[in-house]
Amino acid sequence: MTTILARAASLMVIYLLVLTSLDPGDIVIGALLGLAIGIGLRPREATRRAAPAPLLVRLRAVVDMFRLTGWEMIVGTWRVVRFCLGAPCAPGFVEIPRDGRSHRGAALWGVVTGEAPDEVPVDIDERRGVLIVHLIDASDPDSVRARHRDALDRWQRHLVP
C-alpha cells in the first residue's frame, strides 16, 4: 500500500509540474489519476519478482544515479561544446551488452543515458542482447562500455532488478 501511495504522489507531482498549477481542482485530479495509475501498476501475485534491495541500498543507488547522471551531463555538454568548436571527434554507434537488464532496467538505462547531450539511445537489439547508443565521440567504445557497466553495477541493479 505504501508503494502505491508513493507512486500516486510522484505521479501527482509530475502532473502538477506539467500543468504548472496548484489549483485545488488540479491537485484532486492529479491525486486521482496518480492513484489509479499506481493501483494499475502494482505487481500481481503471480508476477512478483525477487524482493527489492533493502531501503538504504536503494536510497544510496538513487543518490548515485543523480550524482553520476549529473556528472555525465556536465561531461557530455563539454564534449558537445568541443565538437561544435571543431575538435576532432569520431561520431558513431556503440553496442553495450544488455547484461541481464530487465525491460524496466533497459528503459531506465535509456532515459538516464539520454540525459547526457552527447549520447542518444538508439535501439535495444533483443536478438543479440545489446543496447545501441550513438555518441559524438565513439573513438573508444571499450571505455563507453566500461562506463555503462560501472553504472549498472553501482546503482541500476539496485533500483530495477
Low-confidence stretches: none
The helix-strand sequence is: HHHEHEEH
Describe the sheet with the most strands.
3 strands, antiparallel
Structural class: mainly alpha
Radius of gyration: 19 Å
Shape descriptor: globular
* Tally of alpha and pi helices: 5
Strand order of the largest sheet: 1-3-2
How confident is the prediction overall: mean pLDDT?
85
What is the strand and helix layout of this fold?
Elements: H1 2-19, H2 24-40, H3 55-84, E1 92-97, H4 103-115, E2 119-125, E3 130-135, H5 141-159
Antiparallel strand pairs: 1-3, 2-3
Helix pairs in contact: 1-2, 3-5
Description:
- The protein has 161 residues and is mostly helical.
- Helices cover 60% and strands 12% of the residues.
- It is built from five helices and three strands, in the order αααβαββα.
- A hairpin with a 4-residue loop joins strand 2 (119-125) and strand 3 (130-135).
- Helix 1 packs across helix 2 (24-40) and helix 3 (55-84) runs antiparallel to helix 5.
- It is globular, with a radius of gyration of 19 Å.
